[in-house]
């Protein structure tokens, strides 16, 4: 490529809005992991957050690490999804009650975080590039304080998912408002105080019943700014899976692997990238 072509490429990409698509729930099921790996291979995703308590995790991690140079691999902290009897878990309402009433055992929370963290390192040979939470539990009271303290002790140099600046689109403004006010501002301030990086903006919130995921995604892209993290939950089809949002997962996968998704990114001048790379610029 000539210097002139390099210059034109630099000018073009520097004017694009840099966005990261992150798939949650890697290793929750074979169908979810396979969908995420397929989208990574097609360069549709640049991050995925991993559930290290899953019995699939070790084998899935080996497949994931083949793409480690092209994506960010994060720890998807889990306190609510039941994998087996050896996995401590709460129902979401119970966890929320215990968190807001300050009845959670901080020592037990720390041990759980450390166990999931160590599972990640054992399978990948490295620390997570970022940390978030299944059902956004990482921003709950007690959990967020323990998490930030733990990350400081680990000298963590990655980033933490931030929901404090979400893109609010109709008809999900209320849900977006509620999720933001479940501790996002407090976690944001704590991360800033301890010099932990975060994504600048957040999208991906809806009720998983929206029939036109493409149209919803277009609303997010229309409002996108540099440093936007778009959460997604893709999966391949599985008729026997016990998952209340399985249909939405399949719809997301179908859109994200489609030509329509590429066309939408081009239409809204979007460059997909890692959050870490965006924050460095």
UniProtKB/TrEMBL annotation:
InterPro entries: Glyco_hydro/deAcase_b/a-brl, YdjC-like. GO terms for biological process: carbohydrate metabolic process. Its cofactor is Mg(2+). This is ChbG/HpnK family deacetylase. Keywords: Carbohydrate metabolism, Hydrolase, Magnesium, Metal-binding. The keyword Transferase does not apply. It holds the Pfam family YdjC. The keyword Acyltransferase does not apply. GO terms for molecular function: deacetylase activity; hydrolase activity; metal ion binding.
